Amino acid sequence: MIINNTVSGFETILPITKGGTGTGSFPNNQYVLGASSGTGLTTKTKKDVWDDIVNQESSTKLNISNGGTGTGSFPKDSYIIGDTTNGFITKTPAQVWDDISSVVSGFSSILPINKGGTGKSSISKDNYLVGGSSDNSITQKTKA
User: In whole angstroms, how large is the CA radius of gyration of the chain?
Assistant: First the structure.
């Protein structure tokens, strides 16, 4: 029975053992969690909570479902690509090039102008490229 904001037989603050928090106030912008003893509550700042999550997950790996990659390392010079079955897979630059070139067919290793490239395999030092006025060409010019 509640009488004048108190629970009959208790102080105004309801203890944890009876379903309360055991305290009358919490610091602003802090999270409330169970204490390690299992019988009390404690508060932590956002940073402390984040550090706990990172430290806990980093000993295993931060799962994809929690915003991680699910792995602790990737091969040097590899790309990570989303995969509907495994989360992420890695590919070498050559494999990525094969993927891209299979989508944009009809050219060798030099991307033509009509596919969004320059049509050039190299640009000489201190030169720049200039687009043609109407013939869909690009000319290499020397810096003045």
Answer: 31
| Chain centroid offset of residue 53 CA | 15
Across 102-110, average pLDDT = 66
83: in domain: no
Residue 88, domain member (yes or no): no
Q: What is the DSSP secondary-structure string of 17-66?
A: GGTS-S-S---TT-EEEE-TTSSSEEEE-HHHHHHHHHHHHHTT---GGG
Q: Is 82 a domain residue?
A: no
Domain encompassing residue 28? 1-43
Q: Please, are residues 113 and 136 in contact by the beta-carbon 8 Å criterion?
A: yes
Q: Is residue 67 part of a domain?
A: no
Structurally, the chain folds into a number of domains equal to 2
pLDDT of residue 8: 58
Nearest CA to 92 out of 104, 115, 75, 105 is that of: 75
pTM: 0.34
pLDDT digits (tens, 9 = 90+) for 6-31: 555 555 677 777 777 777 777 787 77
Residues sharing a CB contact under 8 Å with residue 138, sequence separation 6 or more, in sequence order: 113, 118, 119, 120, 129, 130, 131, 132
Beta carbons of 92 and 77 less than 8 angstroms apart = yes
